[in-house]
Give the backbone structure.
Amino acid sequence: MALQVALDECLSIREGRLLIEECDVHALAQSFGTPAYVMSENQLRRFR
């Protein structure tokens, strides 16, 4: 069972990895390189 800690509605940590809306930030960095600028679509829509 994986422990998941919610930081807010869009951010969480699971097994020591940062997730933005269930997307593993480490995997995104491996795929697209760094620096990578990642935005939460849900959070953008909430504050428009």
Summary: Strands lie at 4-6, 11-14, 17-20, 23-24. The two ends are 37 Å apart (CA to CA).
